Amino acid sequence: MHQYYVHIMTNNSRTLYTGVTNNLERRVFEHKYFLIEGFTKRYKIARLVYFEETNDILTAIEREKQIKG
Q1: Model pTM greater than 0.85?
Q2: Which residues are within 8 A (CB) of 21 and not within 5 positions of it... i.e. 6 or more apart?
């Protein structure tokens, strides 16, 4: 069974980033060390503040949209 995570991360300025991943530990590592180009690197998003776990990718994506909305 697959696991998916909806996660919220932030920086020192409290800018929020919400995303979905199937490997939370890897994704947090990528954010923390700014390994991925884009929003999270530009704004130094590196601190995990919240996550939810589900075994359904569509549920995870819908929840991400709900949080962002």
Answers
A1: yes
A2: 4, 5, 7, 27
